Amino acid sequence: MPTDGIDQIEIFDRALLRDRRDRSARRGGDHDFLFQEVAGRLTDRLEDVSRRFDLALDLGARDGTLGRALLTSGKAGKVIFADRATGFAAQCHEGGPSIVADEEMLPFAPGSFDLIVSNLALHWANDLPGALVQANRALRPDGLFQSAVLGGETLSELRHCLMDAEEEISGGVSPRVSPMVDLRDAAGLLQRAGFALPVADLDRIEVTYDDPFRLMADLRAMGETNALRDRLRRPTRRAVFLRAAQLYGERHRRSDGRLTARFDIIYLHGWRPAETQPKPLRPGSAKSRLADALDTDEVGAGDPTKPE
Question: What is the mean pLDDT of residues 201-228?
Answer without folding.
Answer: 93
